[in-house]
From TrEMBL:
Protein name: Lysophosphatidylserine lipase ABHD12
Highest taxon, organism lineage: Eukaryota
A GO CC annotation given for this chain: endoplasmic reticulum membrane
Record field: transmembrane: 37-55
Catalytic activity line of the entry: Hydrolyzes glycerol monoesters of long-chain fatty acids
The keyword Acyltransferase is assigned to this record: no
Record-level GO BP terms: monoacylglycerol catabolic process; phosphatidylserine catabolic process
Family: Belongs to the serine esterase family.
């Protein structure tokens, strides 16, 4: 009937009106939730710079990242577990009561002879006819980090002894990290090695944050008139302020008014500088810089800028200073330059001697 049809239309209209009414208030609820989420994100965003400014030690921890131990659950006393069957683990004391963990990897062709040998044998082999590389790793992780282990294997296969260690506060080493402490540990390790070597070449290799330690170390050595045979800087930066400003973690704050005051001054307040761009003006030994164009952690332009500074250094006049870029298409990024098949030739040409062939 007409009345029934009219009632159905009214019912349908009421139902549509009710759905619109419910949908409107539902949207208000979602918007309200979104506003609350946005509000808390804004509070956190504003709070982080304030907290870092009030507690500068937090910024130091973010620079060193020594509390990030990757891979987890590895036993640093057993380098064999990481595929290093020709590596000896031991401990030294740069200062009384301050123990640091050290690995010594002999040239790969000696792996059979190395089986079952003790520390005395490894020490004696430092007097063999093979050059030694003191490797200074970057922040986070330990001397057992996978990309580091892979580099030890490459250098070992080229006939080098590789000595690496965890700075105080890293891995199973005692103490707390600081720029001064890291540099002191590196100087102690260099002197310890130099005493054991019979005029064998001793090269220093730094990676990432370790490049800052390396230039600090070499500057000290040059100041006392005893430079190393060569310095290799892998993925280096100019100084810690420029690196912090370029780091991807700083992206969300980089354009914040007062960024330098909140973040960079907090780093300086911890006496952290790693001023490689200053150090190169006090270094007098061959310098090789390796950098991948697709490095997002330490941008390529910082490595190039450091090379430009080194090229103009009066103290480096007469010494070989070389910059080797790696194309983005190779995807070596920040820590995979060891994969380059050109690396053996690069090192051989730079260091001026052919590498022993692994047997």
């Amino acid at each position: 009937s007409a009345d029934g049809s009219s009632n159905r239309r009214k019912g349908l209209q009421l139902n549509i009106l009710f759905q619109c009414f419910f949908s409107f208030f539902s949207r208000l609820g979602v918007l309200g939730k979104m506003k609350r989420v946005f509000f808390w994100i804004l509070i956190i965003y504003v709070s982080i710079p304030c907290i870092i400014k009030l507690v500068p030690s937090i910024q130091a921890k973010l620079v060193f990242l020594n509390f990030v131990r990757m891979p987890y659950f590895i036993d640093l006393k057993r380098p064999l577990d990481q595929g290093l069957n020709h590596t000896h683990n031991f401990y030294l004391e740069p200062e009384v009561g301050q123990r640091v963990g050290v690995w010594h990897t002999v040239p790969a062709h000696m792996w059979r002879e190395a089986q079952g040998k003790d520390g005395a044998w490894y020490n004696a082999e430092l007097n063999s006819a093979h050059a030694v590389i003191l490797y200074l790793h970057g922040n986070a992780g330990t001397r057992g980090g996978d990309h580091r282990v892979q580099l030890y294997k490459v250098l070992s296969s080229l006939g080098y002894h590789v000595i690496t260690f965890d700075y105080r506060g890293w891995g199973d080493s005692d103490g707390s990290p600081s720029e001064g402490g890291m540099t002191s540990d590196a100087l102690f390790m260099y002197d310890w090695l130099k005493q054991k070597l019979d005029r064998r070449p001793l090269y220093i290799w730094g990676h990432s944050l370790g490049t800052g330690v390396a230039t600090n170390l070499v500057r000290r050595l040059c100041d006392r008139g005893a430079p190393p045979d060569a310095l290799v800087l892998e993925s280096p930066f100019t100084n810690i302020r420029e690196e912090a400003k370029s780091h991807p973690f700083s992206m969300v704050y980089r354009f914040l008014p007062g960024f330098d005051w909140f973040f960079l001054d907090s780093i300086t307040a911890n006496n952290i500088r790693f001023a490689s761009d200053e150090n190169v003006h006090h270094i007098s030994c061959p310098v090789l810089i390796l950098h991948a164009e697709d490095d997002s952690v330490v941008p390529f332009h910082l490595g190039k800028k450091l090379f430009d500074a080194a090229s103009q250094s009066k103290s480096l006049s007469g010494h070989k200073v070389q910059f080797v870029p790696f194309a983005s298409s190779l995807a070596y990024k920040h820590k995979f330059i060891y994969r380059s098949p050109e690396l053996p030739n690069i090192l051989s040409n730079f260091l001026g001697s052919a590498h022993p062939v692994a047997q």
